[in-house]
Automatic annotation (TrEMBL):
Residue ranges occupied by any N-acetyltransferase domain in the UniProt entry: 1-93, 7-93
PANTHER family: BSR4717 PROTEIN, PROTEIN NATD1
InterPro entries, alphabetized: Acyl_CoA_acyltransferase, Gcn5-rel_NAT, GNAT_dom, GNAT_YJDJ
Domain of life: Bacteria
Record-linked Pfam families: Acetyltransf_CG
Designated name of the protein: N-acetyltransferase domain-containing protein
Length: 93
């Protein structure tokens, strides 16, 4: 089962994906002021490529942004592409 957890620190944070308890992916972000986060890196373990791990992490970031009235700046190419492909999450851009 895929699970995405968040670790938030003062200036940076990350979303960590695990699949049945095993590391599956990591997406990092930096804070830009009090109301924006910049997604700067996404990586998925090769064994989980094509299984929706990256997209799940982006959607978790969107959920976090909506709950906290934040905007997302997707600098990471993968996150940027995910926003371009999925219109329903663009409200947080």
């Amino acid at each position: 089962m895929l699970e995405v957890t968040q670790n938030n620190r003062e200036t940076k944070g990350e979303f960590v994906a695990t699949f049945d308890g095993r590391p599956a992916g990591l997406m990092t972000y930096s804070w830009a002021g009090d109301d924006k986060i910049i997604i700067d890196h996404t990586e998925v373990e090769p064994a989980y490529n094509g299984k929706g791990v990256g997209k799940a992490m982006v959607y978790k970031a969107v959920e976090f942004a909506r709950e906290n009235n934040l905007k997302i700046i997707p600098l990471c190419p993968f996150a940027k592409a995910t926003f371009q492909k999925n219109e329903e999450i663009r409200d947080v851009l």
